[in-house]
């Protein structure tokens, strides 16, 4: 039993799609600047940095496509909406990150034995620094909006761009050291470190995104919040058990069994369900709540006791 029809999953607002579209433009600008920096210096570390920016462009395009699909309304084949498309985008981005890291390693490892001399570093590093500054500002925007809107696609894009910023800072330091110390082996060595950092970023991104596709539950802190709200707002009931949660894009599904006195009327039980749904949605915007009402003899004497 539920207390009325479930609302449809909230589609990503148009503003998120516009942000994703602008992210593609930013990624293209940064890519162009980084390749200019590589051409000016011949640095394999800067090449690795530019190669990661190719993935940024593809990832930004994937995020845009995912948000566009997720914005489609629920239909007969997808009654719960299309919000999981954002997780697919994040998984694909993780795979692309790993492929970029492998490409960097293929270029950098041979250069360990015969490192190249870095030419004209100051101009090239200046161009790279401008690209890094643009990325830093945009990463902060993506992360802030992604957290506020609970958008897996924008969060994945923001984390990737922020990882690119850290990589670029390390590359800038390493290339300067290689130029002014004469230890040119620092250039490919740093490129290898960049590749390993990208691999780690890609692994974490794929792990989190696959968790969403596999209907992972909410984190322990959020579950405690849900249990507290239920316990405080279920007056008139006896017990709540078999609480289950899962994420689907920006939506959190909450399901549980509500035990009431056997003689309670349907109207009274329905009123408790209404109160619980309203309280949970007030605590977690966009939550979908499904409640199965059971008579007293179905109590399991565990779960959430009503205060």
Automatic annotation (TrEMBL):
Q: Name one GO molecular function term.
A: cadmium ion transmembrane transporter activity
Specify the protein name: Cadmium transporter
Gene Ontology CC terms: plasma membrane
Residue ranges occupied by any Cation efflux protein transmembrane domain in the UniProt entry: 22-214
Q: Does the keyword Transmembrane apply?
A: yes
Q: Say which family it is in.
A: Belongs to the cation diffusion facilitator (CDF) transporter (TC 2.A.4) family.
Transmembrane stretches, by residue range?
A: 20-41, 53-71, 91-109, 121-141, 161-178, 185-203
Main subcellular location of this protein, as a coarse class: membrane
Provide the Cation efflux protein cytoplasmic domain boundaries.
Answer: 221-295
Q: Any idea which UniProt keywords this protein has?
A: Cell membrane, Membrane, Transmembrane, Transmembrane helix, Transport
Instruction: Extract the InterPro entries matched here.
Output: Cation_efflux (IPR002524), Cation_efflux_CTD (IPR027470), Cation_efflux_CTD_sf (IPR036837), Cation_efflux_TM (IPR058533), Cation_efflux_TMD_sf (IPR027469), CDF_Transporter (IPR050291)
Q: How does it sit in the membrane?
A: Multi-pass membrane protein
Biological process annotations from GO: intracellular zinc ion homeostasis
What compartments host this protein? Cell membrane
SUPFAM superfamilies membership: Cation efflux protein cytoplasmic domain-like, Cation efflux protein transmembrane domain-like
**Which top-level group of life is the source organism from?**
Bacteria
Please name the PANTHER family in this protein's record. MITOCHONDRIAL METAL TRANSPORTER 1-RELATED
């Amino acid at each position: 039993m539920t207390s009325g029809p479930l609302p449809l999953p909230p589609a990503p607002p148009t503003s998120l799609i516009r942000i994703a579209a602008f992210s593609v433009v930013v990624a293209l600008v940064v890519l162009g600047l980084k390749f200019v920096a590589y051409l000016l210096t011949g640095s394999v570390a800067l090449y690795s940095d530019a190669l990661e920016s190719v993935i940024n462009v593809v990832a930004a395009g994937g995020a845009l496509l995912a948000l566009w699909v997720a914005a489609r309304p629920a239909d007969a084949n997808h009654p719960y909406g299309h919000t999981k498309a954002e997780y697919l985008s994040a998984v694909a981005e993780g795979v692309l990150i790993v492929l970029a890291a492998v490409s960097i390693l293929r270029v950098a490892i041979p250069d360990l034995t015969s490192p190249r001399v870095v030419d004209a570093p100051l101009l090239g590093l200046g161009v790279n620094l401008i690209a890094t500054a643009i990325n830093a500002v945009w990463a902060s925007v993506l992360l802030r909006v992604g957290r506020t809107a609970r958008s897996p696609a924008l969060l994945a894009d923001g984390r990737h761009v922020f990882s690119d910023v850290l990589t670029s800072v390390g590359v800038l330091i390493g290339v300067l050291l290689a130029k002014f110390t004469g230890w040119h082996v620092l250039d490919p060595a740093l490129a290898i470190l960049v590749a390993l950092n990208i691999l780690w970023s890609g692994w974490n991104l794929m792990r989190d995104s696959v968790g969403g596709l596999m209907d992972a539950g909410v984190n322990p802190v959020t579950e405690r919040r849900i249990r507290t709200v239920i316990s405080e707002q279920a007056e008139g009931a006896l017990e709540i058990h078999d609480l289950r949660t899962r994420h689907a894009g920006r939506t959190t599904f909450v399901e549980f069994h509500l035990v009431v006195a056997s003689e309670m009327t349907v109207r009274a039980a329905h009123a408790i369900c209404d109160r619980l749904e309203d309280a949970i949605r007030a605590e977690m915007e966009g939550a979908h709540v499904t409640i199965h009402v059971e008579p007293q003899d179905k109590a399991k004497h565990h779960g959430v006791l009503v205060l």
